[in-house]
Design a protein that fits this description.
With 56 residues, the protein is of the alpha+beta class. It has one domain. Helices cover 18% and strands 25% of the residues. The protein contains 1 helix and 3 strands. The chain has a 3-stranded antiparallel sheet, with helices on one face.
């Protein structure tokens, strides 16, 4: 298994915690609750992440 540096980005859009794991590809962990999308999208933009690059 190849080692990779991963950055963990914390998003706290309220009572839940959402994480973005950013490495070669990005992974969104937990999507929060309805209405969290705007805060999550702002973090994407702030960290130069294109939502289309999120691993599915």
């Amino acid at each position: 298994m190849k080692e990779e540096n991963v950055t963990v980005i914390l998003i706290s859009p309220g009572i839940v915690t959402v994480y973005i794991l950013q490495g070669t590809r990005s992974i969104l962990v937990d999507t929060g609750y309805p209405g969290s999308d705007l805060k999550i999208m702002k973090k994407f933009s702030k960290n130069s992440i294109d939502p289309k690059d999120i691993y599915d």
